[in-house]
Specification:
- This protein has 161 residues and is mostly beta strands.
- The protein is 7% helix and 29% strand.
- It is built from two helices and nine strands; from the N terminus they run E-E-H-E-E-E-E-E-H-E-E.
- Strand 8 (142-146) and strand 9 (153-157) form a beta hairpin.
Length: 161
Protein backbone atom coordinates (compact mmCIF):
# COMPACT_ATOMS: atom_id res chain seq x y z
CA UNK A 1 0.00 0.00 0.00
CA UNK A 2 1.13 3.52 -0.67
CA UNK A 3 0.01 7.01 0.25
CA UNK A 4 -1.54 9.27 -2.40
CA UNK A 5 1.88 10.90 -2.71
CA UNK A 6 3.50 7.53 -3.53
CA UNK A 7 5.24 6.83 -0.19
CA UNK A 8 5.07 3.06 0.45
CA UNK A 9 3.84 1.69 3.75
CA UNK A 10 5.69 -1.30 5.16
CA UNK A 11 3.32 -1.95 8.10
CA UNK A 12 0.74 -4.64 7.46
CA UNK A 13 -2.81 -3.66 8.37
CA UNK A 14 -5.82 -5.97 8.57
CA UNK A 15 -9.39 -4.83 8.69
CA UNK A 16 -12.13 -7.04 10.09
CA UNK A 17 -15.62 -6.38 8.83
CA UNK A 18 -18.89 -8.18 8.31
CA UNK A 19 -20.67 -8.25 4.98
CA UNK A 20 -24.44 -8.41 5.18
CA UNK A 21 -26.46 -10.90 3.19
CA UNK A 22 -27.99 -9.82 -0.12
CA UNK A 23 -31.52 -8.43 0.17
CA UNK A 24 -34.01 -11.30 -0.13
CA UNK A 25 -37.81 -11.65 -0.17
CA UNK A 26 -39.26 -14.95 1.06
CA UNK A 27 -42.80 -16.32 0.83
CA UNK A 28 -44.45 -18.40 3.56
CA UNK A 29 -47.88 -19.95 4.07
CA UNK A 30 -49.36 -22.71 6.19
CA UNK A 31 -50.10 -25.98 4.44
CA UNK A 32 -51.89 -29.18 5.32
CA UNK A 33 -48.75 -31.08 4.30
CA UNK A 34 -45.56 -30.38 2.37
CA UNK A 35 -47.10 -31.15 -1.03
CA UNK A 36 -50.40 -29.29 -0.45
CA UNK A 37 -51.32 -25.78 -1.53
CA UNK A 38 -51.67 -22.94 0.99
CA UNK A 39 -54.53 -23.02 3.49
CA UNK A 40 -57.11 -20.41 2.41
CA UNK A 41 -58.09 -19.52 5.99
CA UNK A 42 -54.53 -18.72 7.10
CA UNK A 43 -52.43 -15.70 6.07
CA UNK A 44 -49.88 -15.74 3.28
CA UNK A 45 -46.71 -13.83 4.20
CA UNK A 46 -43.76 -12.15 2.54
CA UNK A 47 -40.73 -11.60 4.78
CA UNK A 48 -37.81 -9.28 4.01
CA UNK A 49 -34.34 -9.89 5.48
CA UNK A 50 -33.73 -6.12 5.40
CA UNK A 51 -36.18 -3.31 6.21
CA UNK A 52 -38.33 -1.88 3.41
CA UNK A 53 -40.19 1.44 3.35
CA UNK A 54 -43.84 0.83 4.20
CA UNK A 55 -44.94 3.08 1.36
CA UNK A 56 -43.18 0.80 -1.13
CA UNK A 57 -44.42 -2.40 0.56
CA UNK A 58 -48.02 -1.13 0.31
CA UNK A 59 -47.77 -1.58 -3.48
CA UNK A 60 -47.24 -5.36 -3.24
CA UNK A 61 -50.26 -7.28 -4.52
CA UNK A 62 -51.64 -10.81 -4.32
CA UNK A 63 -53.66 -11.27 -7.51
CA UNK A 64 -56.07 -13.94 -8.65
CA UNK A 65 -57.86 -14.10 -11.99
CA UNK A 66 -60.66 -11.91 -10.64
CA UNK A 67 -59.37 -10.06 -7.55
CA UNK A 68 -56.40 -8.13 -6.19
CA UNK A 69 -55.58 -8.19 -2.48
CA UNK A 70 -53.66 -5.47 -0.61
CA UNK A 71 -51.15 -6.40 2.09
CA UNK A 72 -51.64 -5.84 5.80
CA UNK A 73 -48.96 -4.90 8.31
CA UNK A 74 -48.21 -5.96 11.87
CA UNK A 75 -48.14 -2.35 13.02
CA UNK A 76 -50.97 -0.36 11.43
CA UNK A 77 -49.99 2.82 13.28
CA UNK A 78 -46.72 3.13 11.32
CA UNK A 79 -47.26 5.03 8.09
CA UNK A 80 -45.38 6.71 5.30
CA UNK A 81 -41.62 6.48 5.80
CA UNK A 82 -41.83 3.73 8.46
CA UNK A 83 -39.81 0.59 7.79
CA UNK A 84 -41.35 -2.88 7.73
CA UNK A 85 -39.85 -6.37 7.72
CA UNK A 86 -42.75 -8.11 5.98
CA UNK A 87 -46.36 -8.07 4.83
CA UNK A 88 -49.30 -10.46 5.15
CA UNK A 89 -52.35 -11.21 3.07
CA UNK A 90 -54.95 -12.04 5.71
CA UNK A 91 -58.54 -13.06 5.64
CA UNK A 92 -60.32 -15.93 4.06
CA UNK A 93 -58.97 -16.27 0.54
CA UNK A 94 -60.84 -18.10 -2.22
CA UNK A 95 -60.27 -21.86 -2.07
CA UNK A 96 -58.72 -23.84 -4.93
CA UNK A 97 -57.44 -20.66 -6.57
CA UNK A 98 -54.23 -19.69 -8.32
CA UNK A 99 -52.54 -16.42 -7.32
CA UNK A 100 -49.47 -14.40 -8.21
CA UNK A 101 -47.52 -12.32 -5.71
CA UNK A 102 -46.37 -9.17 -7.49
CA UNK A 103 -43.68 -6.78 -6.28
CA UNK A 104 -43.85 -3.17 -7.47
CA UNK A 105 -41.40 -1.92 -10.07
CA UNK A 106 -38.18 -0.77 -8.42
CA UNK A 107 -38.78 -2.77 -5.23
CA UNK A 108 -35.77 -2.33 -2.93
CA UNK A 109 -34.79 -2.26 0.71
CA UNK A 110 -34.19 0.90 2.74
CA UNK A 111 -30.53 0.90 1.62
CA UNK A 112 -31.51 0.95 -2.05
CA UNK A 113 -30.62 -2.70 -2.79
CA UNK A 114 -32.80 -4.64 -5.21
CA UNK A 115 -33.95 -8.10 -4.14
CA UNK A 116 -31.45 -10.78 -5.10
CA UNK A 117 -34.35 -13.10 -5.96
CA UNK A 118 -36.41 -10.51 -7.87
CA UNK A 119 -36.43 -12.82 -10.90
CA UNK A 120 -38.71 -15.19 -8.90
CA UNK A 121 -41.47 -12.59 -8.97
CA UNK A 122 -44.27 -12.55 -9.92
CA UNK A 123 -44.42 -15.67 -7.78
CA UNK A 124 -47.14 -18.24 -8.49
CA UNK A 125 -48.93 -19.63 -5.41
CA UNK A 126 -52.24 -21.41 -4.84
CA UNK A 127 -54.80 -22.20 -2.17
CA UNK A 128 -56.20 -25.66 -1.51
CA UNK A 129 -59.59 -26.85 -0.44
CA UNK A 130 -61.31 -25.22 2.50
CA UNK A 131 -62.81 -28.24 4.27
CA UNK A 132 -59.44 -29.72 5.21
CA UNK A 133 -58.12 -26.30 6.11
CA UNK A 134 -60.67 -25.71 8.84
CA UNK A 135 -59.63 -28.89 10.58
CA UNK A 136 -55.86 -28.82 10.25
CA UNK A 137 -55.28 -25.09 10.70
CA UNK A 138 -55.22 -25.44 14.47
CA UNK A 139 -53.17 -27.99 16.37
CA UNK A 140 -55.61 -30.68 17.46
CA UNK A 141 -55.40 -34.32 18.33
CA UNK A 142 -56.88 -37.11 20.43
CA UNK A 143 -54.72 -39.50 22.41
CA UNK A 144 -56.33 -42.79 23.38
CA UNK A 145 -54.92 -45.20 25.90
CA UNK A 146 -55.91 -48.83 25.67
CA UNK A 147 -55.91 -50.85 28.87
CA UNK A 148 -55.58 -54.59 29.21
CA UNK A 149 -52.04 -55.19 28.00
CA UNK A 150 -48.93 -55.27 30.14
CA UNK A 151 -47.68 -52.13 28.48
CA UNK A 152 -50.35 -49.61 27.61
CA UNK A 153 -50.49 -48.58 24.00
CA UNK A 154 -51.04 -45.00 23.02
CA UNK A 155 -52.16 -43.85 19.62
CA UNK A 156 -52.70 -40.37 18.28
CA UNK A 157 -55.42 -39.50 15.79
CA UNK A 158 -55.82 -36.39 13.74
CA UNK A 159 -59.15 -34.83 12.93
CA UNK A 160 -60.52 -34.81 9.37
CA UNK A 161 -58.65 -37.92 8.30
Amino acid sequence: MATPGGVPNSVEKRFTFTVREPFNVSFNCERENAQAACLPIRPMRLAFNAPVARKLAEAIRLKSASESFKPTFDRDDAEGDALVSGVSFKGVLPEKSAFTVELPTGFQDASGRAASNAASFPLKVATGRDAAAACSAAPFGIVERFAGARTPKATARRCCR
